[in-house]
Write a structure and sequence with these properties.
This protein has eleven helices and twelve strands. It is an alpha/beta fold and 329 residues long. The chain has two domains: 3-52, DNA polymerase, domain 1 (Orthogonal Bundle), CATH 1.10.150; 59-318, Aldolase class I (TIM Barrel). The strands form two sheets. A ten-stranded mixed sheet has the order 1-2-3-4-7-8-9-10-11-12. The protein has a two-stranded antiparallel sheet with strand order 5-6. The protein is elongated.
């Protein structure tokens, strides 16, 4: 709940308005998931809260760890399972959040897409991932990426409310420039997001130089043509001054040809570009592009004055990298 919502509930529960801030501090600063631990609340308020309220509903099923990442398999109250990933980049600890159980967009390289869509996650389930992970790991989380299971903008209202609570001073207090949302390209929702005033960074899962190639890789994501998606992305970037990055999963002989490169360069002007090595999973029979081909792309983009980097996905050894979530392994 947002602070104003919680404040409105306090008189009904025998608490004062200021009790709402105390509760928020326990949840977001101290990671408390047990109401009885909130010892600066009155006994009456704790009793009334405990009778019908709860803090979070996820349970940890399994944790897999490596040097680059930890993968958390979490069980929802209804028995559905989701996965979250904690990634380590030097001094930065980044959590990758899921927003849905499964996904309806069926990208050919993505295991989650092969699951199909089951349901949206609630605000509580999205935020509880942060509390569980940082408590288990015992570390501070610096960055949030909405790049886990599901399409964040398809679960629009719950995603937006979650971002507000992540960003709020009485919430997790993580700045907008440390929050990135990845989308398959729902142009209408991206345009709507401008009006929310969140000003978070956006990653567009583009993965193709034109609609024909993109339709082969991301068939269900072709609700919007590439021109409409890129126009919406430029509008978002201009309105918010936030970063909009084009994500491009490099797939051998599918989207990595020289012809694809030259066409992509024309479309990508004005954006940052992340080239991503295809992560193998049982969902995909395609092969990743060679290191040599990726080097050619980087060199040519540099010549064309595009800012391009290669994103090495953390957690591939755990089936925790881009395109691998949902296996439960």
């Amino acid at each position: 709940m947002a602070l104003a919502e919680l404040e409105a509930e306090m008189p009904k529960l025998g608490g004062k308005k200021f009790s709402a801030k105390q509760i928020m501090k326990w949840i977001y600063s101290k990671s408390a998931r047990d109401i009885n631990l909130m010892t600066d609340l009155s006994v009456e308020l704790r009793k009334n809260l405990a009778e019908s309220w709860r803090v979070g509903s996820l349970e940890t099923v399994n944790v897999k760890k490596s040097e680059t990442a930890n993968k958390y398999i979490l069980r929802c109250a209804d028995g559905n399972r989701i996965e979250s990933v904690l990634m380590f980049f030097g001094t930065r600890n980044t959590i990758c959040l899921s927003t849905q159980v499964g996904c309806c967009y069926g990208c050919e390289f993505c295991y989650t897409g092969k699951m199909g869509f089951k349901r949206h996650l609630t605000v509580s389930e999205i935020l509880d991932q942060i509390n569980l992970v940082r408590t288990e790991a015992g570390i501070k989380i610096n960055n949030i990426v909405f790049m886990g299971m599901g399409e964040p903008l398809a679960n629009y209202d719950n995603t937006v409310k979650s971002i507000r609570l992540i960003n709020a001073s009485e919430g997790f207090n993580i700045g907008a420039r440390h929050i990135t949302l990845s989308t398959v390209g729902l142009a209408d929702k991206l345009t709507k997001l401008i009006k929310e005033g969140l000003n978070i960074n956006i990653s567009i899962s583009l993965n193709a130089p034109n609609d024909d190639v993109r339709r082969r890789i991301m068939p269900a994501a072709m609700v919007f043509e590439m021109k409409e998606l890129l126009d919406a992305s430029r509008k978002y970037q201009a309105a918010t001054a936030a970063d909009v990055t084009l994500e491009y999963v490099m797939i051998k002989n599918v989207n990595d040809t020289i012809e694809c490169l030259e066409e992509f360069i024309k479309k990508a002007r004005g954006f940052k570009v992340n080239l991503i090595t295809l992560n193998k999973s049982s969902a995909c029979e395609w092969e990743p592009s060679s290191e040599h081909r990726i080097h050619i792309w980087l060199k040519r983009m540099s010549e064309a004055k595009l800012i391009g980097t290669v994103r090495r996905s953390a957690g591939a050894e755990l089936n925790a990298a881009c395109g691998q979530l949902g296996s439960g392994k």
